[in-house]
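In response to the reviewer comment on reproducibility (Comment 2.3), we provide here a single inverse folding case reported in full, input and output, so that an independent group could reproduce the run without further information from us. The structure tokens appear first.
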């Protein structure tokens, strides 16, 4: 099917060697649910980055984690049924691409039921480290996951995960027909032995560029594989020295950050969600009307790299500046 080929080409991270497997998965998925094609096509022209941070707790504690300021157990967790009802009632056609993440979303006791309730209505991507209790019985997990097909982004964390176990779990997911994209941040903590196992595994593993400070306190990288990347802009946003600004999260692709915290508050950037500052709404108040508006913020310079490509900002002059 030409449309399936188009979908596969547009989804980043899929290696050519895995295209046949994913094509078979999509054919089965579309045969079982023709409406799924609509959701996959919406994904190609995504307008909103809609994400549910289901649980900020994590079974790992990586030294390089970019979720600075997070109080892992400090969020009041709104019942997922409320978030599910909010999404089903308010999300429009262009808002049907949903990320479920954390922390580690799969540690939440309602994770599986949340996916079961939403996977028919949303094109779901789950980001996971494959290290939680959900994966201890892989046979049971795969039986459930095949019945509720979504996209899995498997993230390898060198400080905690055995690379052989990671490869084994990814391979079993792919062999079962699941769309599983394995990746990991390329930090100094990745050993040569781990690198050899991951890159030689045949599962399509790729490394993400590390964004942050190196051992000398320099913000890296100075070059990034994105034609719109500017190191000066990167430093202004993430290089430290927090200062006032007005900002909005709308990118060249017209995405807007619509981030739902575990407590039901809604934010338009990651750092504010992690620090629980300046929400622009709450799920009980309906779909926020200020997603694309300029917002006041005091954290320019301490932005999260996740928002680097999807944010405009205006610095607020200091008092007395000419």
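Designed residues, in position order:
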């Amino acid at each position: 099917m030409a449309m399936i080929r188009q979908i596969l080409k547009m989804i980043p991270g899929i290696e050519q060697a895995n295209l046949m497997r994913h094509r078979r998965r999509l054919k089965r998925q579309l045969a079982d649910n023709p409406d799924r094609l609509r959701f996959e096509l919406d994904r190609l022209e995504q307008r909103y980055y809609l994400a549910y941070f289901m649980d900020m707790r994590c079974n790992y504690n990586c030294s390089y984690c970019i979720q600075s300021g997070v109080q892992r157990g400090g969020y009041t967790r709104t019942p997922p049924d409320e978030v599910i009802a909010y999404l089903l009632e308010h999300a429009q056609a262009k808002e049907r691409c949903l990320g479920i993440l954390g922390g580690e979303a799969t540690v939440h006791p309602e994770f599986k039921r949340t996916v079961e309730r939403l996977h028919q209505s949303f094109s779901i991507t789950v980001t996971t480290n494959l290290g939680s209790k959900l994966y201890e019985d892989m046979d049971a997990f795969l039986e459930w996951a095949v019945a509720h097909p979504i996209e899995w982004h498997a993230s390898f964390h060198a400080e905690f995960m055995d690379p052989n176990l990671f490869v084994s779990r990814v391979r079993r997911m792919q062999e079962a027909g699941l769309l599983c994209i394995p990746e990991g941040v390329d930090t100094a903590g990745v050993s040569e032995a781990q690198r050899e196992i991951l890159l030689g595994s045949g599962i399509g593993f790729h490394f993400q560029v590390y964004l942050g400070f190196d051992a000398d306190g320099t913000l890296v990288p100075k070059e990034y594989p994105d034609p719109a990347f500017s190191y000066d802009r990167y430093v202004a946003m993430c290089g430290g020295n927090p200062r006032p600004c007005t900002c909005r999260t709308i990118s060249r692709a017209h995405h807007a950050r619509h981030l739902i915290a575990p407590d039901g508050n809604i934010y338009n950037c990651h750092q504010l969600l992690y620090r629980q500052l300046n929400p622009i709404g709450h799920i009980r108040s309906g779909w926020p009307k200020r997603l694309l508006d300029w917002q006041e913020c005091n954290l320019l310079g301490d932005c999260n790299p996740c928002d680097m490509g999807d944010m405009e900002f205006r610095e607020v002059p200091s008092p007395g500046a000419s």
